[in-house]
């Protein structure tokens, strides 16, 4: 009886050993296989690790910070061909080519309600005071040839400008007239598509190249 029991235990142990070590998998018997091969792919290769010097780490940190800073698009213009040629050379000397572009654009005609030309700065200042007293607003002149003078608004057609002049005359302004400030033509628009922390310190330098034309957010 003891011999039979010992034989059964020995056989059971042998079967358990074969089962636990996968020797019976060919017969569909064996423990569930545990495997997570994705962990192998996620292991860090020591050879690929690079220790950064303090100055390298600071440079990388500043680069990441600059990339996360909000950026905006800015533009100025339009410029005629001669102005664009001068501006192109100035920008090429001051900025990387990747941060700016001079794009060819169609310039629509523009009519203004105009006051001027005035004989001197004193006469111009006096008229400004009169306009302010009438609660009228002024717009910058785009054509330097019309200085010293004042613009009471710009319009895309002469008919619109004539209608505006009639309204202003009804308010007591009788010395203005309609004038075409800009003819239809082809020009160039300066565009700075990505203005971030690296470029912002140079904006004053860029504005000085624009001949008085404002640098403003890009039209949407």
Summarize the structure.
By secondary structure, this protein is an alpha+beta fold. It contains seven helices and seven strands; from the N terminus they run H-H-H-E-H-E-E-H-E-H-E-E-H-E.
Q: What do these coordinates show?
A:
With 220 residues, the protein is of the alpha+beta class. Among the domains are: 66-104 and 185-217, Alpha-Beta Plaits (2-Layer Sandwich), CATH 3.30.70; 110-182, Alpha-Beta Plaits. The protein is built from 7 helices and 7 strands; from the N terminus they run H-H-H-E-H-E-E-H-E-H-E-E-H-E. The protein has helices spanning 2-20, 38-42, 54-68, 81-94, 121-133, 158-170, 203-207; strands at 72-79, 101-107, 110-116, 149-155, 177-182, 185-195, 216-217. The strands form 2 sheets. The chain has a 4-stranded antiparallel beta sheet with strand order 2-6-1-7. The longest helix has 19 residues, at 2-20. The mean pLDDT is 82.
């Amino acid at each position: 009886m003891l011999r039979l029991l010992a034989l059964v235990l020995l056989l059971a142990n042998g079967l358990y050993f074969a089962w636990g070590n996968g020797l019976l998998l060919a017969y569909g018997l064996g423990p569930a296989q545990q495997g997570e091969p994705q962990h192998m792919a996620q292991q860090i290769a020591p050879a690929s690790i690079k220790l950064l010097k303090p100055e390298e780490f600071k440079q990388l940190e500043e680069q990441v910070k600059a990339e996360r800073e909000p950026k905006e698009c800015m533009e100025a213009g339009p410029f005629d061909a001669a102005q664009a040629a001068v501006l192109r050379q100035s920008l090429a000397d001051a900025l990387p080519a990747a941060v700016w572009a001079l794009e060819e654009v169609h310039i629509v005609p523009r009519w203004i309600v105009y006051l001027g030309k005035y004989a001197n700065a004193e006469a111009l200042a006096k008229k400004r005071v009169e306009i302010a007293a009438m609660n009228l607003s002024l717009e910058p002149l785009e054509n330097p040839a019309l200085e010293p003078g004042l613009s009471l608004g710009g319009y895309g057609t002469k008919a619109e400008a004539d209608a505006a002049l009639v309204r202003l005359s009804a308010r007591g302004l009788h010395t203005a007239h309609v004038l075409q400030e800009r003819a239809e033509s082809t020009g160039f628009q300066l565009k700075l598509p990505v203005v971030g922390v690296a470029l912002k310190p140079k904006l004053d330098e860029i504005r000085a190249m624009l001949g008085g034309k404002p640098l403003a957010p890009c039209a949407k």
